[in-house]
Amino acid sequence: MNKHHETTGPADEQQITLRGPAELADALPYMMGFHPNDSIVLVALHGNRGRFGGRLRLGIPSSPREWSPVAEQLAECLIEGSERRGSRPDGIVVFLCQDPAEGEMSRRVMERLRPLAQRLRTACGTLEVPVYEALCISDGRFWSYCCPDARCCPPEGSALALPGTSVMAAAAAYAGIQVRGSLREMEGRLAPLTAPPAADQEKALDTAGATLVPRILDEQGREQVAAETLALARRLMTRIAESPRSGDWAETDVADDRLISHDEAAAVILGIQDRDTRDRAAEWMEGPDAPGALRLWRALARRCVGPYCEHAAAPLTLAGWVAWSTGDEPAARVALGRALRVDPDYVFARLLHEACNQGLDPETVRSCLRAASSSRAPSGSGPDEGAGGEGGRGDDGRRKARSRPRPRRLRQPLGKKALPPAGPRPAKSAPADRARGSRRTGERGTRSGR
Q1: What gap in Å lies between CA 29 and CA 36, rounded to an integer?
Q2: Which of 142, 121, 116, 109 shows the shortest CA–CA distance to 23?
Q3: CA 99, CA 198: separation in Å to the nearest integer?
Q4: Which of helix, strand or coil describes residue 404?
Q5: Under a CB-based contact definition with an 8 Å cutoff, are residues 291 and 329 in contact?
Q6: Which among 252, 293, 375, 384 has most CB atoms closer than 10 A?
Q7: H/E/C letters for each residue in 290-359?
């Protein structure tokens, strides 16, 4: 087994040498920032010393028929992404993480996933990048698919190191690296509310949609809705920021949910479906605005319930963007990944997810948003000030000159009374949009931009 080095700081300060499968398995949550559940993780290795490079995570497909194409796609994405960042990997480490189902033994999980490990090794080898190690981690134990030595990798598996007791844990603590719990727990912060609050929130979204959608379809009304949405979102951010964090993150999320009424949540959720409104809300990505904005977007993602689940793509993407902008890449990847599961065609989430995974600097996006804010508002104005009328459209002279509303789709829920018609009918969508809309006939409200 080769040695691999994970740099936790500048190259001249500290390097950690990982020896063997046990230390690799222990290092995984520190590399990712959380314990991945039900995940394939690929990590690129560079140079003779096996320096860790890019890493890529994907949920394990439930159907084995998907394993071959997924393996090929993951290998290609990691290798090509590494090349774009400067160097082709010299090797790859594969992790398969899955806890046993009810009544299943962890060793059975390892055997069941062995064909997936082999497909990943073959896919990487086909691209002339060897897999140095492939590990299965399940229920606190790990197995190597590559090491035949039963002395270090026994058939019954080996127990993971106790949390906080390894060399990697000590180095991570010294470097300020935190493990945020499991991926399942992190995604739970963004999951929709359950009954009974979900039923009340769905009714509020129905009511808000009947009022706001006709206004959004009208150009003048759309400007007013944008101003109202940003002003309300700003008030909610202030309310949340003034409420101290209470205990752990779970208690904080519950407290945040109590600070936002169902009607307020519905109004902002529907308002930020408009692309321009969402982009202006994205300007709250740094400084004192960022913590309150991140808590707000997470809370609104939890309010996208029932037939409105796809509307969560907007607040999830905003949550991912603010997390990435403030340096929390693990939380950003989780939020953006969930946004893409909710709506795989959400362009803003796709672009941010790719940029974050490629290790790009978010300052490029921040600079664009700052420039848009400066060109739209007078000095000293926030993104929500002067948002109505022409002032709310001053970020681009071509937008001011536009006289017709952008084509947008209005979806009717099945089995519900249709919304009252108002304003001109939206223009016909492109063929791809029509096909996409036909697959989502059970949604409500408007999704005007991505």
Answers
A1: 7
A2: 142
A3: 29
A4: coil
A5: no
A6: 293
A7: HHHHHHHHHHHHHCCCHHHHHHHHHHHHHHHHHHHHCCCHHHHHHHHHHHHHHCCCCHHHHHHHHHHHCC
User: Which residue type does 50 have?
Assistant: G
Torsion of Cα atoms, 190 then 195 then 196 then 201, to 10°: 50
> How confident is the chain (450 residues) per 10-residue block, as mean pLDDT?
35 56 82 87 88 87 94 93 88 94 93 97 96 94 90 86 64 65 84 90 95 89 94 96 78 91 97 95 95 96 95 97 92 92 94 84 91 71 41 37 38 38 40 38 47
Of 365, 350, 297, 358, whose CA–CA distance to 329 is shortest? 358
In the chain, the amino acid numbered 391 is G
| 88 C-beta neighbours (distance < 10 Å), count | 15
The span from the CA of 234 to the CA of 284, in Å, is 9
Closest CA to 373 of 294, 286, 297, 288: 286
**Which strands form 131-138's sheet, in the order they lie side by side?**
15-19, 3-7, 51-59, 39-46, 91-97, 131-138, 141-144, 158-159
Please work out, in degrees rounded to the nearest 5, the angle formed at the alpha carbon of residue 45 by the alpha carbons of 40 and 48. 155
The predicted model scores a pTM of 0.66
Distance CA 102, CA 432 (A): 41
DSSP, residue by residue, 347-393: HHHHHHHHHHHTT--THHHHHHHHHHHHHHS-TT--TTTT-SGGGGG
The two tokens of residue 417 are 């009374």
Quote the Cα angle for 222-228-233, to 5°. Answer: 125
Inter-CA distances, 424 with 70, 158, 231, 408, 427, Å: 44, 66, 27, 11, 9
